[in-house]
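User: Fold this, then the next.

Assistant: Folding the first:
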Amino acid sequence: MKNTFLIICTLFLLQSCIVSEKPNMAFFDSDYDFKGARFVSINVPMLLAKPYIKKALREDGEDEELIKLVNKVSKIRVLTVENGDKTMLKDYARYLNDNNYEDWATIKHNGDNVNVRVKQKGEAIRNMLITVNSDKDLVFVDVKGNFTPDDISRMINSASDK
């Protein structure tokens, strides 16, 4: 009985860590013309990822308040796009505007653009989308959690300072 429970728990944890070559975000539905773009989608299991993220932040010398923000994250999905084009990025921005995402920050770093958008209802922020684009490579990070505007501002300021 104990082994069966252990196997079920292990399968549950592994099931949540899915890597796929198909887009895992709502914008990229099956009707969209991808024009030869290649995708890698990753659903990150937070139970396993949180300790590693906290350790890496501590090693980088981040303050404890920023590290505590990791506890507020409930789900992360990452989508990388190779051979994407500017039209795809413009369509994605239009999709976010149509779905009530607010543009909070654009940070330029070594020729890459990092864009942070949030979906806010009152003081609660349940969804944050981070987009990194450089030439034809794009990275989309969908972060779900329970954040405040102050949390997001602190995170953006920390990234801007570096």
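Now the next one, as you asked:
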Amino acid sequence: MGAIAHLWRGEVYRSTIWRTRLDTTTNWAVVTLGIALSIAFASPDASPLPLVLVGVLIIFFLVLEARRYRYFNVWRARCRYMERHLYAPMLMEGDLHLEENWQEVLAKDYLQPEYHISTLTAMGRRIRRNYLWILLIQSASYVGKIVVHPTPLTSSDQIWERSAVGPLPGWVVIGFGALYLATWLGIALWSWASDYQKAKKRGNRGRAMG
């Protein structure tokens, strides 16, 4: 019991460290978006291009955070597994039967460690938790910049004129932006549906690793 207690504490420590790293990448995404907003809205004549280019950095931070989340999920899953199958039965009165051979499942995870979720699932979870709001603010800010600067819109044709970037016409830029937002929203919805189906399949039989 003493060895298992130290093992659990070690996993909690590792999950805490990696949880902090998740906050770091989210903060980077927020800061870079804030800088882009400051540049784009510095004056009525400022270009909305920084709001487009910052999307590249947001994607980079999202991918990096998804990788970190996959590590974090390993430590978190191990902690929850021990809490649910070892500590919870010890604290409850009577025989709390949760899952057969849970010790073997945990042992195999230590003998042959691997990620419990895919990169796409990790990205979807991070979008649902944080990045969807960042992406929505970025998109809304771009639309707001087009609508009010350098002067309020007087016709719909001005939307395409102001959205144009170099040789790219405005409809291409807006279409790409809509596809950009729809892609990440689709990944978020897919990961939610996948997690829901997994939870529904497990039911009350316990929570599997990951």
